[in-house]
Specification:
By secondary structure, the protein is an all-alpha fold. The protein is built from 1 helix and no strands.
Amino acid sequence: MAERRLADAHERWSWCERRAEDAWALADDADAARRAAERELDEAEGDRWSATYFVRAAAEQARQTRQARQADHDRAHQQAAGMAM
């Protein structure tokens, strides 16, 4: 009877050790997934800042182009008004 209980205890111990190994493997996988997600988040944040910079640069270029066109338009009107006199 004692031998059977000892055998059962060893079997339960082995089962617990396997479950513990599985749990550690899952924890390692979860940690690796977390690190990968953090890297992706950092990359996405960098991409967002780059996109923001390029959008602002394009908006500034459009503003300058619009001002240059308006200045050309105004000069053309002034020249036409000067010729009309």
